[in-house]
Amino acid sequence: MTTIGILGAGRVGSNLADKLAAAGHQVTLGVRSLEDTTASTAGAAPRITVADQRTTARTADIVINATPGDTSLDRLTALRTELSGKILIDISNATRDAEDGLPGDLCYPGSSLAEKLQAALPDTHVVKTLNTMLFMVMTAPETLATPPTVYLSGNDGPAKKTVTDLLADLGWQRGWMEDLGDISTARATEAMILVVPHIMRRHGFQPFAVSLAR
Fold first, then answer.
1. Is the pTM of this model over 0.90?
2. Distance between CA 198 and CA 139 in Å, rounded?
3. For the residues of 17-48, what is the DSSP string, one character each?
4. Is 122 helix (H, G, I), strand (E, B) or coil?
5. What is the pLDDT, as a whole number, of residue 42?
6. pLDDT tens digits, residue range 15-27?
7. Nearest partner of 27 among 39, 42, 45, 11, judged by Cα
8. How many helices, marked H, and strands, marked E, lie in the chain?
9. Does residue 10 register a pLDDT over 50?
């Protein structure tokens, strides 16, 4: 059984926690303040516990970054010791909001949050994935009318293999997974977020993924 820590207990982190716990993993939701524990554990599955983010990073085998992307770099750099030697799955997009609150500009044009994290955490295996879709698609890709694509970027092959196994637990078929290469390829998928607000303004908050058609 793999122990998975999720940094961020909002709707994205909680949604992933529920599905991964249902798949048999022990999940810890990492919250900024333990005062949030009551709200975060409401209706939680038996395999889900809550801890502060430092404890979550230290005790988990695999850590998922579901914190706001514009603050993730500082937040996770402070956990360098706890994340050493571990796989860090980065699913966040680092953006600055437009006036309507939707993503406007990239925080790291010409680079990516994943690349910044890998540089700041050299002893951690960063894998970028799941950042090109609305959060409900992450755990229910089969609900879309068209088979979606989930992209992976990372420098470590075995780490990416581990992540593909977790994606399968979330419902992703192997044929829907696209390994783009090393961590520098994450700048391409992170830039895909720029199309999302335009789609949402036209169609509302409906499930979709930015996918590859063949």
1. yes
2. 23
3. HHHHHHTT-EEEEEES-GGGHHHHHTT--TTE
4. coil
5. 46
6. 999 999 999 999 9
7. 45
8. 10, 10
9. yes
Whole-angstrom distance, CA of residue 98 vs CA of residue 43: 34
**Residue 8, Cβ density class (10 Å: 0-12 exposed, 13-18 middle, ≥19 buried):** buried
| Spatial contact of 126 and 118, defined as CB atoms under 8 Å apart | yes
In angstroms, the CA 80 to CA 70 distance is: 18
Show the tokens assigned to 152: 């992976």
Query: How far, in Å, CA of 62 to CA of 169, rounded?
Result: 14
Low-confidence winner among 8-12, 30-34, 78-82, 173-177 (lowest mean pLDDT)? 30-34
Q: Would you place residue 92 in the very low, low, confident or very high pLDDT band (cuts 50, 70, 90)?
A: very high
Rounded Cα distance between 193 and 181, Å, is 19
Long-range contacts of 36-41, Cβ-Cβ distance < 8 Å, separation of 24 or more: 36/9, 40/9, 40/14
Longest dimension (CA), the chain: 48
**What is the rounded distance in angstroms from the CA atom of residue 74 to the CA atom of residue 120?**
9
> Token pair for residue 161?
């293999």
CA 19 → CA 1, 141, 153, distances in Å?
15, 12, 22
Kindly report the backbone phi and psi dihedral angles of residue 178, in degrees, each rounded to the nearest multiple of 5, phi listed first.
-125, 110
Q: Helices 157-169 & 11-22, crossing angle to 10 degrees?
A: 80
Is the separation of the CB atoms in 97 and 103 below 8 Å?
A: yes
